Structures are given as C-alpha cells and as structure tokens.
Amino acid sequence: MSNIGSYEERLRGFDWSIGEKELGYKKGDKINIGWYCSDRVCQMGKASKLALVWENHEGHVKKFTYNDIRQLSNTFASLLCGLGLKPGERVCIFMDKVPELYISFLGILKMGGIAQPLFSAFGDESLHTRLSNAETAAILTQKKHVAKVRKIREQLPQLKHIIVVDSEGSPLKEREVAFDMERVPRVDDWKAYESTAETPSVLHYTSGTTGQPKGAQHVHYSLIAQYLTTKWVLDVKDEDIYWCTADPGWVTGTSYGIIGPWANGVTQVVLDAGFGAEKWYAFVERHKVTVWYSAPTAIRLLMKEGKEPVAKYDMSSLRHLCSVGEPLNAEAVIWSKEAFGLPFHDTFWQTETGSIVITNYPGMPIKPGSMGKPFPGITATVVNPKTFEPINNPGTVGLIALRPGWPSMFRTYWKNEETYRSKFKNGWYICGDRASIDADGYFWFVGRDDDVINTGGHLVGPFEIESALLEHQAVAESAAIGKPDPVNMEVVKAFVALKPGFAPSDDLDLEIMNFIRKKLSPLAMPQEIEFVKSLPKTRSGKIMRRLLRAQEWGEPIGDVSTLENE
Ligand code: PRX
Predict the structure, then answer these.
(1) Least confident range of 18-22, 344-348, 466-470, 533-537
(2) pLDDT tens figures, 467-502
(3) H-run or E-run covering 18
(4) Count of CB atoms within 10 A of residue 162's CB?
(5) Read out DSSP for 245-301?
(6) Is the separation of the CB atoms in 139 and 162 below 8 Å?
(7) CATH of the domain at 117
(8) Ligand 1 touching residue 346 (CB < 6 A)
(9) Are residues 423 and 467 in the same domain?
C-alpha cells in the first residue's frame, strides 16, 4: 500500500495541516528546517539510524547517523556564528556532492542563515553573477574549487569568509578559514535559530529568458510541502533506502536530496561520481536502494546501454521510481517497466514551486508520456496565453498555471520583486510551460513558453551565455538557443557574428566553446557554433531567438512583422 492511498480520498479531505500535524507544527510555532531534519528525527527515536551513506568514485564509503548529522550541523552552525555571521546573511555552498555539502546546508539553516547552494561545476563568472546578486557573506567550498573563488573575491566586497572544508596540505590566504568537520570537536548542544514560517531559508538561482539568473527565495515553512510530497509522491517509508541522483546545486537536490528525505527520517545514499550505467546499477545493488529519484536524461543514457547491463546486477531491491526535470517520454516509462519491472513516475515542478506540483502517484494508473495530476492542495490548470482564463477544453494547449498559496511556493526573486510580480496573471502563478489536460485530468507537457534552454534537466539562460560570448575578443554579437538532442533533450547552440578582422575556423570554434565552459559551466557550453554575418533583429534591435529556434527545430516561424531586415 502506498503512503498516499487513494488519490481521490486524499483530494477530498486535503489540507496542508495534515503535514503540519505529522511534523508536530502549529501555526505561529518556530520552524527551522535544519532542526526538523536532524534534532527532531533524533527525538523521534532514530538517533542511531543512518541518515546518509555516501560513496565516491573510488568506492570510498562514509556513513552518518541522524545523531552524527545533528551534531555536525550544530558544529557548522557554531562555526558560522563564531565567524560573526548573522541570521539572514547568505551563505553559499559551492561543493561537489560531499557529506559536508549536505550537513552544512542544515548548519546554515540552524544558525538562521540563508543557504545558497551553487553547482560546483560553475565557472568563475557564473559564480560571480550569483554571489554578487545575493551579496553573499560567506562561501563554503573545497580546495579543488577555491581557485575560482579566489579569482573573483576582490570583486565581491560583501564576501567576508571563504571556508575550505578539506584544506589539509594547501596553504590558505587572507579571509580563508580551514574547517574540517571530522576533525574539529563536535558541538552536541546547539539552540537552532528560532525561525518562523516566513523566515527565509534557501536561495536557489534559476535562469529565465531575459537578464541574469534570479534567486528564488524560499522560507522555512516550505518544509510542510517538501515533507508531504516526499512521503506521498516518492512514497518513502521508514525502512527505505532512498537515492536522489540530483546535485543540490539545483533545487531537486535540496528539496528532495536533503529536506524531504531527512524530514521523513529515511536513510539516503549519495553517489559522488559521474554517470555510468553499470556504476549506477552496482550502486543500487550494493546499497539495496528501494526508492530512486532521477531524471529523463539519465534514463535515456541507461536506455542507450540496453537491458543487458541491468541483468548483470541484482536490482530487486527497487520498489518505486520517479523522474523530474524534463519531459519523460513514453518510451522511457515503457523501457523502465521492461528493464526494472517498474515504471518511472513523472513529477513536474520548478525551482519556484519548491516542491512537486503535478505528478503520477504511486498506485495511480500511469499514462506513459503524461505528467499526471496535481498534488492534493495544488490547484493547477492550463490558461489561455492571452486572457489567462482557464481552458476547459480537453486537449487544448495552454500555459500551466497554479493557484498561489502552497507552503513551498517561492516568496520573491531576490532583489527583483518586479519580475516576481510579472509571474502572476489573473490570480494564477504562470510557470512558463505549455501543456494540455486530457478528459481524465492528466497533464501532458508540450514545451517551454520562453527561450530558456533545458539541457539534461538543467535550465540555462540564453542571456547569460550571450553576455559571456560578448566578452570574447572575436565576438561582435551572438544568440544562444536550444537545439534538439536525443539524450539531453536540448543542447546549447550559439550563433555568432564575428568582429572585423576575425574569420571563422575550427580553432576559433573550439576556443569559444572552451571560453564559455570555463566561464560559465559545461552545461552552458555551446555544442555547436554557427558563424553568421548578422543576426535577425526586431526593428528595436532585439535579437529574434524565436526565429533561429524555429529554423533549428523545423517549426513554423510565426509572426515576423517586426523583423528589422525584412
Ligand atoms: O520546463 C519545466 C521543466 O523544468 C522547468 C523547471 O526547471 P527548474 O526550475 O530548474 O527545476 C527543475 C526540477 C524541479 C519546468 O518549468 N520540467 C521540470 N519537470 C518537468 C519539466 N518538463 C517536463 N516534464 C517534467 N516532469
């Protein structure tokens, strides 16, 4: 029997107070996610239960009980307070998927700080953009990434402390602090900051069509939705071994790679290593993973390897599979049923929504290719893109719209209230995605409604890439779009017009690609560069990415009446 039981019954009797009650929270109480994910679990009699089993690419394993993560997160909180950091200040986590990442996340919340996780593969410019926007006061990192921080620290006057969690053997510089959580004395007793429901908790940067990435601001009350969706959608139970493959630099890795599982008191496993089909199967076998949360790109990579490697491993521990981040194609659902005897359940949500909003529940009939139905407590529909009125015609495509008000909904974009407000129309939060709803109430994803590129489940903003391209000495103007890719759904393609004196060549092509990879990230690196004489622009001078994208995807070009050189 799944945790959700009958979807229809849950819908009828639903109120978010179900989650509040289970967590022992009452309106007006203190609520600190760091405390809920460690101290409370210990108080519930699970102090010696494993919270985290971590393994790296060399097969080195570390295990932490709930009491360990309670004490170690206290130790991080105490360190941060000792450095003079104050509640409300932003503390960035810039690490690979090492135990310190997961545990310091709780520590930051326990001292009242706002946790700002950033993907460790980000280059110095991606890092700078986000740290400078958030006016981040401290950053926790590893020695392998500290050079990127050093490169930009003089441009970040607000950045007071750089904490290196594994600095042994490498000399540190001014403003840098060495902190090895496994060597310093543990802090057993720590009074968590008395945050309340609306106290800011996590700041996750996400990309849009225009401008630089925006910080989606979450609050401690988000816990209620993250807890309940983990329980009902991911269906975790006390005895489960849960594996979320996402990196906490992205929202899946925090909402469902830290908060959700730990608030539920389950054991989670983390593999700090790159992708490899057999590597992953061996990991499932070794740790007897029961619940697995992954992404379509990873599933497609597994599919590419075929079913033979699956048969080499004992995958019988698996009980429930879920996916997020991009459209989960019907073939992937069917393949997983054949390969693992279980379908992947699609879940749809965003950085902004903080938790799963539309999904296939355990036990609910899956229509392969559909995202499923709204989580109880979420009012979701598709609206007409002009009037923002709900479309009541099954199969008609509109914009996915959610009625604001669930606990984990973001509260604003950091220092960008105007863009935040622009996301609401006619009383709906507009996700920026197109979909239709069928006669049974199932949602079918169609595509993004903007120019954001979704590569392997990661959103990349064209503006950020174009700005970085312009910093290259040869580039006069540029446009970045997503081009179709069989595995990653989309990859970045850049159109580049060169400055006089520069000519297209394979060397220049490679040089520009690497320039972006180093400055931004491997995800943002164009997989293809097309050199052009000029770019299509509107009469007001705006580059028409829409046109380039339509050409690339073989879609109708649409209205070009505003085209400059028409
Ligand atoms: O376009 C949708 C796509 O990813 C976007 C959200 O990306 P992000 O904020 O980075 O969060 C990703 C993980 C929650 C959405 O607006 N997306 C997410 N899940 C799905 C999806 N597209 C299709 N199907 C999904 N299940």
Answers:
(1) 533-537
(2) 999 999 999 999 999 999 999 999 999 999 999 999
(3) helix 17-23
(4) 22
(5) ---TTSHHHHIIIIIHHHHTT-EEEEEES---HHHHHHHHHHHT--EEEE-HHHHHH
(6) yes
(7) 3.40.50.12780
(8) yes
(9) no
Pocket residue to mutate for ligand 1, from 348, 370, 382, most atoms within 8 A of Cβ: 348
Structural domain of residue 254, as residue ranges? 7-189+197-434
CB of 96 within 8 A of CB of 57? Answer: no
Helix 296-305 and helix 277-287, axial crossing angle in degrees, nearest 10 = 100
Number of folded domains that form the chain: 2
User: What integer best gives the mean pLDDT of the chain?
Assistant: 96
Same domain, 297 and 412: yes
Q: Do 202 and 165 have their domain in common?
A: yes
The reply to whether 448 falls in a domain is no
- For the chain, percent of residues with pLDDT exceeding 70: 99
Q: Which atom of ligand 1 is nearest to the CA of 255?
A: 14
Nearest CA to ligand 1 atom 21: 326
Give the confidence band of 566 by pLDDT, cuts at 50, 70, 90. very low
Kindly state the percentage of the chain with pLDDT values over 90.
92
**Residue 563: predicted pLDDT:** 63
In a domain, 559, yes or no: no
Closest Cα to residue 79, out of 5, 185, 197? 185
The finding on whether 248 has its CB within 6 A of some atom of ligand 1 is no
Give the pLDDT score at 174: 87
Where does a domain end: 407, 434, 461?
434
* pLDDT tens profile 203-244: 999 998 788 899 999 999 999 999 999 999 999 999 999 999
In a domain, 174, yes or no: yes
Q: Ligand 1 pocket, 251 CB below 6 A?
A: yes
Output the CA 454–ligand 1 centroid distance in Å. 8
* Beta strands, E only, 380-449: 380-383, 398-402, 412-413, 424-425, 428-437, 443-448
User: Is residue 168 assigned to a domain?
Assistant: yes
